[in-house]
Please model this.
Amino acid sequence: MPVPCPAGTFSNEFNRADASQCKACRPGHYCATAGLEAPTGQCAAGYFCVSGASHPSPEVATADFGPCPAGRYCPVATAWPLRCPAGTFSAATRAIEAATCLPCTAGKYCPTTGASAPAGPCDPGFFCVAGTQLARPATGFCAAGQRCPQGSPAAEACPAGSYQPETHHEACLQCPSGFWCGEGATAYAAQPCPVGHACPSSTESATHRPCGRGYFSPVIGASACLPCDPGSYCATSGLAAVSGPCAAGYYCTGGSTSAEPVLTLAGPTGQSMGGRCPAGHYCPAGAVHAVPCTPGSACTRQGLAAPDATCQAGYYCRSSASTATPADDALEGQGGNRCRPGYYCPAGAAWPLACPVGTYNPDFLATSAEACRICPARTYCASAGLSAATGYCEAGYFCEPGATVSRPVAGLCPAGHYCVLGSAAAVPCPTGTYQP
Model:
């Protein structure tokens, strides 16, 4: 009795002696049952049938038939899976058409056919658009002013604050201090920092960092702004020069933002920028600090550009006097005192003037040398600045008014006379006595 050819085979010839003479089902076809004279039909889309297939969609993969593998596609009646072309890939199995092959992902490359995934990222210094086949595409290199890190899908302009003078680079260089670099810069030398601005490293534009209030920059290519000069003020930002001198009646210590700074106002450096001139001082225009009031003068109120009073007669005004009639050296801001005994103080006195030797003055508030009294007879005034006579003339001498020593040469008691302690004149020896 005849034996049928097994499933997966067929025979269209007579007189076959055994099963080995049955033909394997043709490429792209399947033979579903035993005893076939011809293939049952075509292999289904998404599958491949090289030889001996018994099902249109064989799920068990062998070398001869099975599901279409990743990286390939299988239309109807496929014998051998068709490979996705270079520059594409497909991760899907059972693909039925070429459209399943996707362009290689941007930033990656697909150098071979039949790829199930991209081979890897684009090399540094290059960029890979979708569908790229090479890690270093001939037309996909970074130009000057651009950067392409590994895996770049496109060239990227150097961000502001950086530059790149060469091609094929993965990173940009930091813009050096004193210069600025806009987006996509290829150089920096022609872009120095303008006056009124500071350009530390990585500065992004000419106007990126204007000098703040209290600062200025007078030179091109500065990396930092300067605090406003002492005695000046910088009122606005972006200054190439100071706004002007500190106003009369005020002082500016440096970094001032106002011509009339407030004493408690902290400047850009955290220190006081200056203030209104205090009493006992004066501040001409452009003052760096409050100037102590001139000796012999008084600065009686705040905000003075010059002393406003002369020290009153009978008083003396040292430096920093805040009143024309100071009463006590120990009082802060008084800067002087009443003229004391032994001295006199004319108007404008910076220090009390001593009564000369041979005179004295017992009173406060003397205004001229006329207040110095001649040392009285019988006494002597040995030094300047006395409030009373130094003492009495010694015995054996007599002291006329204005004596300066206790033994005046002109006051030596003559022969035939005697002079007791404190004598104003020599007294003749009485009758019956003598003095050789």
